[in-house]
Every structure is written in structure tokens, then in C-alpha cells.
UniProtKB/TrEMBL annotation:
CDD domains: PBP2_NikA_DppA_OppA_like (cd00995). It comes from the Bacteria. One of its GO terms (biological process) is peptide transport. Residues 73-450 form the Solute-binding protein family domain. This is Peptide/nickel transport system substrate-binding protein/oligopeptide transport system substrate-binding protein. Transmembrane segments: none annotated. It comes from Kribbella amoyensis. One of its GO terms (molecular function) is peptide transmembrane transporter activity. SUPFAM superfamilies: Periplasmic binding protein-like II. GO terms for cellular component: ATP-binding cassette (ABC) transporter complex; periplasmic space. It holds the Pfam family SBP_bac_5.
């Protein structure tokens, strides 16, 4: 599951007294992440929330969203300038920045790092971010679905050119008016030369360019301990002197660790939505999430091929009841998060609960053969509960047999990526940059990095391309909405709910809360 930052402040705890204090010494905090431990740290090969959280501390982006104004501001970039068509972009870096090994940060580091990621045979997760750059196909030849491309003789994107030590240009295959926004994504962070020469040798001893560096040795499964790096010259450095990321696979366990006083910040799991305000009075914040949550069909399974069948499943689900079960959630009515420009209420015409219509659509689709299998993550305390809730609705409202399969989340993802997963699964998405386009291209474009279902529709790809090429933002949004309509008509996944995020924080810190970039423990202030 890939989720971006939580957006739009909704409510805050009142603050209050604490048994601990951040004064009188080094300012340190321990942030709990309810997920399996990372196997490596490489932002170019990471698009999951746990890895991105760590990358935010260790790597700096070219640009970012200002938490106070919501405007895009430069971090390592001096300027980002499109030509008149938004097809060729010139990026000029600020001078004087270095990596944590002392190597000066240059335009060559970006060009070479991006080429490394764009090489399909490397299999890096952010490869698709470069699909719009001229020359991408030469590095990514046609490959059977689910297979890794073979190495190619071409090793560089023809659209990437170094102009001088601090300047490079990016020529896209077609105009893309949103490209400047994408540069805040940490999947575009550069790697220093010594890491590029042997990425595997540095996968557990990364060399970043952000405000924090790895402190000491780190092995997969260990806490990730970071210390402030004095060489960081970017704007708005965080206040903490040291940060520890502690990975706790079970979200309830992570929550209990906070209550025991061993961590300073934790996400509130769904099981604690009803009690967190009384469990930790004056030590909580909530925010609207930019994430959207879905039930995903396997496009590789012919039994789910008929759109009417998928619509039948959608209308068999009582989203209000399910959102109440999830807690702090509202039923989804489209594919876009409510806080994004271009969101439309009730964009989905088959997302309302109607058991009679669901049965009719199932009949028109020719029924369904065999049991419906719902996969759920065994690491989640609510995984089986949510799966059974959806399964009961499908069983009761469609008369179908339902079974459940529990697996580790990583195993479910691997099976889906190789088109071997049997049945439905839950997933979610939150934007990497604040644009309606980022809810559509990754999940619904045929080559999208987060195309969870294996969906492929040339008509949608065409409309997305038209939106990308439209320099007028309002006209571009209208085109992206057309793409959303196509996806909703095909329904390769079912929108389920949007939810508020809730967090607990120790009394010694006050997380940064912004309606533009959400809640951040990394940028907490100390009391």
C-alpha cells in the first residue's frame, strides 16, 4: 500500500502536561511505524509509506509544498522552468550542497541516478516515474506481463541532458503541465557516485543529502537511528537532534508501546478509533487523509472480466456500514481524495448500496463461477475483520460463496505483482504530489507504477495524455475527470472509503500540523 501525506487539519488535542520533557539536553524522538521492517533504504526503489517516511529524513527533494501557504517552493532547486509547451524543463540547482559523504551535489548526480532508475532491468519501483521522459522505451523494451525487462544496450534516457555542473534539462515525450509538481517526490532523489556504482553495497548504509544521516551500523530488522547532519543547507530543517524509527509490524502493539512510554509518535490503528482520545487525553491530533481506499479486482482472472459483474460487487457493499466499522471514515464516492482540486462528489454512479440492483447486474453479467476469495493482511489487527465484513455483504447481497485467505502484506503484493494472486485484495493510495493526475496515472494508466489490478484501457491512456499536454490547469482537470469517468465505468477496483488519520504524540513534542502537508512527527517542535 502506497499512501502519501495526510492532509487538511480537522481537529487537535488540547496539549497538556507530560511526564517527559524535550528541554535540558539533546532533542530526540522515537517514531513508531506499524509495518514490517525495511530491507533497504533507497528512495529511488521505494514507493511505500514506511520507506518514504525514512527517506524524508535522509534525502532532500528539489521542491516541496510550503506547509503554511500550500505553494510549491524550492529546496535544492534554484529554479524549475518549463518551455512554452511544458515539454522541456530546465532545472537549475542551488550551489554549495553536498551529499553526506562530502561529494558535491551536481546535475550529473540527478541525470545518472534517474537513468539508473529508468533502466527497466534494474527493477526499481520508481521506474515508471520516468515513463514520460523521451527515450524511456529504449530502456524498457516490451516484456511479458509480470516479468522484469532484460538489460538493454541503451543505458541513458535521451531526454536527460546535463548542461553544466548545476543545470540539467528534461525533455518529455509529450507536454506535461504537472511535471514541476512531481519534483517534490523523493523517488527522484539523487544518489552519490559511489552508491550508483554499487547500489547493493549501500542498500543498508545509505548516503543521503537531507537533514539526517544514518548513525552507526544498521541491519534489516533493526531500529533506524538517525542523527542530525550539520551539512544540510536546505530550508526549514527539523528541530530534533536525533530520530529513531521503530518498526512494529502489529499496529496494536505499536499503539501499546506508545501508551507504555517507549515511543513518542504513533498512528492510531482502526481498533483504537473509539478509545484513543481517552487512552491519551491531550496527546492526539487528527487530520483528513489524502488517501483513498479500495477493494481491488484481479484483471488477470477472466471471471472478473465483465464490468457489470464488478459493478454488482460495488453496489452490494454498504459503504456507510463499512465506514462506521473502520471508524473516522466516510464512504467513497469516486477515485479522488476529497481535498484534491478536481474532486467531484458522487462521481461514481455504482458506489451506492443497492442490493436489488446488485443482484440484477450480477444476473446480467452471467453470474459468477466458484467462491469469491478475499485476501487480507495478517499483520493488520483489522485485516480479517474488514475482509469478513465485505465478504458477508457479498454473500448476503449477491448470494455468492466467499472464502478468506490471510497472508503477510508483502506476500499479497508479490503475488499480485506477478499476476498470481487469487481473488480480491484491499489497497489504498495517497498522492505523491497534490494533483488529480497522481490519483489516476499510477493506478489506472496501463504502465502505472501502482496499477494494482493490472488494468489496461487505451482510451483512458489517451485522455490522460491529453490532460498531461494541456497547459491550462482548469482544462487539464476537466480532462483528468474524463479519465476518472472511464475508470469508474470499467471499475477495475472499488472505491470504499476515505478516512481521517489519527495520531498520538508524547507530551515533549508537538507535531507539525498543516492543512497542506498534513501531520508530521519529523517536523515536530519540542516543548
Amino acid at each position: 500500500m502506497t499512501l502519501g501525506l495526510a492532509l487538511a487539519l480537522s481537529a487537535c488535542g488540547d496539549g497538556g502536561s507530560s511526564a517527559s520533557s524535550g528541554s535540558g539536553g539533546a532533542k530526540s524522538e522515537t517514531i513508531a511505524i506499524a509495518a514490517d521492517p525495511l530491507e533497504y533504504i533507497n528512495p529511488l526503489n521505494e514507493n511505500g509509506s514506511p520507506g518514504i517516511q525514512v527517506a524524508m529524513a535522509m534525502f532532500a527533494p528539489l521542491v516541496t509544498t510550503d506547509p503554511n501557504t500550500g505553494k510549491t517552493v524550492n529546496v535544492l532547486a534554484e529554479s524549475v522552468t518549463p518551455d512554452k509547451t511544458s515539454q522541456t524543463w530546465t532545472i537549475k540547482l542551488k550551489s554549495g550542497n553536498t551529499f553526506q559523504n562530502g561529494q558535491p551535489l551536481t546535475a550529473k548526480d540527478y541525470v545518472d541516478s534517474w537513468n539508473l532508475t529508468a533502466q527497466g532491468s534494474n527493477g526499481w519501483k520508481n521506474n515508471g516515474f520516468f515513463s514520460k521522459v523521451e527515450g524511456y522505451e529504449a530502456l524498457n523494451p516490451p516484456t511479458p506481463d509480470g516479468a522484469t525487462p532484460k538489460p538493454t544496450s541503451v543505458k541513458a534516457l535521451s531526454g536527460l541532458k546535463q548542461v553544466d555542473d548545476l543545470t540539467f534539462t528534461v525533455k518529455l515525450k509529450v507536454p506535461f503541465s504537472q511535471f514541476g509538481l512531481t519534483l517534490q517526490y523523493l523517488g527522484l532523489a539523487p544518489l552519490p557516485e559511489e552508491v550508483r556504482k554499487d547500489p547493493d553495497a549501500y542498500k543498508r548504509k545509505p548516503i543521503g543529502n537531507g537533514p539526517y544521516k544514518l548513525e552507526g551500523e544498521w541491519n534489516a530488522g533493526d531500529d533506524i537511528k538517525l542523527a542530525k547532519w550539520d551539512g544540510y543547507k536546505g530550508p526549514n530543517a527539523p528541530a530534533a537532534d536525533a530520530i529513531t524509527y521503530r518498526f512494529i509490524p502489529n499496529a496494536d502493539t505499536a499503539y501499546n508501546e506508545f501508551l507504555a512510554g517507549t515511543v513518542d509518535f504513533v498512528d492510531v490503528p482502526s481498533t483504537k478509533i473509539k478509545t484513543f482520545k481517552t487512552d491519551a487525553p491531550d496527546q492526539w491530533v487528527t487530520s483528513e487523509s489524502s488517501g483513498a481506499n479500495y477493494l481491488v479486482f484481479p484483471a488477470w482472472d477472466a471471471r472478473f472480466k465483465n464490468p457489470k459483474l464488478r459493478a454488482a460487487f460495488s453496489q452490494a457493499i454498504d459503504r456507510k456500514a463499512f465506514a462506521d466499522l473502520v471508524g473516522l471514515a466516510t464512504p467513497a464516492t469516486g477515485l479522488i481524495a476529497p481535498d484534491i482540486n478536481g474532486y467531484r462528489a458522487d462521481a461514481c454512479k455504482v458506489c451506492s448500496f443497492d442490493a436489488g440492483k446488485a443482484k440484477q447486474l450480477l444476473q446480467e453479467a452471467g453470474g459468477f463461477s466458484g467462491p469469491v476469495n478475499i485476501n487480507y493482511n495478517t499483520s493488520s489487527a483489522t485485516g480479517q475483520i474488514f475482509a469478513e465484513a465485505i465478504g458477508n455483504m457479498i454473500r448476503q447481497n449477491l448470494g455468492l460463496e466467499v472464502k478468506y485467505t490471510g497472508k503477510q502484506g508483502s506476500e499479497i503484493t508479490e503475488l499480485a505483482d506477478t499476476r498470481k494472486l487469487d481473488g480480491l485484495r484491499f489497497s489504498g493510495w495517497g498522492h505523491d504530489y497534490p494533483s488529480i493526475e497522481d490519483y489516476l496515472t499510477p493506478m489506472f494508466k496501463s504502465s502505472g507504477d501502482a496499477n494494482f489490478s493490472g488494468y489496461n484501457n487505451p482510451a483512458l491512456d489517451k485522455v490522460l495524455a491529453q490532460g498531461d499536454a494541456e497547459p491550462d490547469q482548469e482544462k487539464a482537470i476537466a480532462l483528468y475527470q474524463q479519465a476518472e469517468d472511464i475508470a469508474l465505468a470499467d471499475l477495475p477496483l472499488i472505491p470504499l472509503y476515505a478516512k481521517q488519520n489519527a495520531y498520538l504524540h508524547s507530551a515533549k513534542i508537538e507535531p507539525r500540523v498543516s492543512k497542506y502537508v498534513g501531520v508530521s512527527a519529523l517536523y515536530a517542535t519540542f516543548k
